[in-house]
């Protein structure tokens, strides 16, 4: 069945599309965002400024973006996948050349009042482009070395650019997100086994390089790894983030200290309490029950997305949905592992909850694509 | 690319399999996160909650008010005075330079202090107050208070600092406090937390140091909630400290002032002890210093001036100084002889002016000799040969025993720094300490308070009081602690034969009141106030045979530090002893000529509790005494006015 056929025959059109939206998904996203507002209100000491209010506005914008993108037929998005990827790539290079320096890393481009983070865009564009690639590629050629090399390059070029900024968190997300799309598309197991083996080799090389003049990652990244491995070695220096965040989590206990009663965050013991470490505040104030509830919300989002993808016979739509879902999963999995001391501190925000500029809007755009895939399913 | 249906089918089957696999991976990782959350939040909750409390709660000490010290009349000797500091808080000040510029127009700022404050400001958190100027005058503080709107971040803070309103009068008795030093901390095994407060004042010397535990009090505490950078967010609870105990001394501020003023110009010491209770009414050492200089840490120049002075102003000579007691020791030898039954009061020795003992000639101070002298005569004339003979018969052991009984060579437990023990030598002492055998010459020297015998002015005053009363008068300097009266030092009877005691007392009376007594020149003529005294002139050098031959014996020809010490002890009134006094003038040449007149003035001041009537003095002295009284009256502290200005 070609696009044209089912597009004309089975997809809803006009306002009927609204009925076919993935409403449970939209509700779940809103619920998670509300948790975010609640926490941002709390960490500001019971105030809508400076974080909760802008975050609400941004989420409203995000919802609008999601609905708009969702209304646009999926084949349109398929057709501009390549373009999106190349524009993102150009922006990434632009950031290299004249981006704003912030937080020790080059990540933003200022376009008038808008602060654009091309690496955010790239996360989506990469998944789109890979999905389009595998949609175009016949399934029997998928594991052919030549046809494997192309997507690998598609992934590695932006990953390399992001790593240069340097933004380890996003680089990891791009790499694993892209890898996940390749895996789902059916690339042979052997490639992944080889890559994992190679990664182990690379990690040992990175550690070998420490202190030499060909050092592969920055000193602060080494320190973060050190503190991850042993946070108690430097409790007031680099280990401070992890130690304090574990204290906050632990002191929350079963049911938490109560809303706005978290001493760790209110007294500023927690670093980046409104961004990357916002989960610790939630866990401190609402305890294990609060933390688990958020985790369940995330799990439900994943579930609805995966089930939508599995019932979608359109290969591009299914791959895109799964790619975005996996990227979303990686977001919160990496963030939570980090605050719980399971992974080193890499700058990855908690999706939809952390206070963040373009991240929220871009994420909603991605879910807009998921909605588009859902609405325009061949039925 | 053209797609076959078969192709699409395998593709979609594989897609479903892989999707399920990825979904499974994600689900299991969510499980891991949930398990980890449970571990941190449920299993280890208690431990982490405790750590969070530790983070949050900080204990701040509240320093207690230090106990104050008063004289026996309730006049403040050491008290806590408000001390104003000017502090700046960087985050409130905004533009520090401008604010400091404006401040310097209002008060004089020490550029060095400002430099230090600026560096401190850079290092510490912006909300912490930094001291710009310490010990600021009230005028400056009020000027700043009026101009606060123009001086953001500048706050005058008031704290308590030690002040000694009577300045140098009690420097040697009360001592002083100073900022706690690393050296102080190192000396203590388990220092009070209070001592960790920067610039906390602790007693360094004298009563302030010895009574530190009582004066300090105990710290209160505030439990405060702090944030990550240490800013206090709120106070959780507060426990007030216990202020230090107030001390009332036995000393009289007027008499103490008189003693210090009277001794000024000499390197000297004087002690006035109340014969009834052992109360120390005055403990003077000259020269003295201003203890207020030490409170905030003394400057190098001031300190050098004190340490390089050859009169040693920092030494509390009255209790720390030890001197050969010279002839003032003769009462000890006389009583030892009488109590041992070696002589009777009327037994005489013949004095030819010298005594030969084992081929050595011991001279009497009077070259021509005193002829035949009995006990009272020996004291009146201070005949040395009488005591040479007597001592050889009594033996050093008995003399030493009597000395200790009368308070010489024993430690008196007073809360003052380095209270000297002196020395009442015995044969055993010489063997163990010097590693030599006692020879008869040592006994002969001891007989006139030379040789090894050493006593402090305090001990000599105690001796005079014990001779006057026959009781074991024990000195005390603290009258009451927080209103609780301390045990009196009036003491039990020494068990001396009253008849023997009376003869010795009579001998001392003759010294002062017999026309031929050595202290006749410094007598008191007011009936009912007459004193009994004894002079002493102790050598600080050995007179060589060559010197003696050359006839250089006049003290006036010697450099100051080689002249004899002048000593005097007395008690008065003779028939009802109230006070006992000892005056030592270092290198003052002659006991009766230098020390006795000072002692007379002090004794009369003590008896009359102020300036005595001039007719207490012999007519020829009155003019000089009147002039001196006028001069010293001007130096008397005006505590009445002081009290008013405080109120």
Structure explained in plain terms:
Chain B: Its main location: membrane. Chain B: Residues 62-236 form the Penicillin-binding protein dimerisation domain. Chain B: It comes from Pseudooceanicola spongiae. The complex is a heterodimer of chains A (379) and B (647). Chain A is mainly α and 379 residues long. Chain A is built from 16 helices and three strands. Chain A has helices spanning 3-9, 17-20, 23-43, 52-71, 74-79, 81-98, 118-136, 145-164, 168-185, 189-208, 219-229, 240-252, 263-266, 278-310, 315-339, 357-375; strands spanning 100-102, 105-111, 114-116. Chain B is α+β, with helices and mostly antiparallel strands and 647 residues long. Chain B folds into three domains: 52-75 and 166-249, Alpha-Beta Complex (Penicillin-binding protein 2a (Domain 2)); 81-159, Penicillin-binding protein 2a (Domain 2), CATH 3.90.1310.10; 253-475 and 493-640, DD-peptidase/beta-lactamase superfamily (Beta-lactamase). Chain B is 41% helix and 19% strand. In chain B, helix 11 runs antiparallel to helix 24 (591-608), helix 15 packs across helix 17 (384-394) and helix 15 crosses helix 18 (396-405). Chain B is elongated, with a radius of gyration of 37 Å. Chain B starts with a helix and ends with a helix. The model of chain B has no long low-confidence stretch (mean pLDDT 86). Classes of the chains: A mainly alpha (379), B alpha+beta (647). The interface between A and B is large, with 52 and 44 residues.
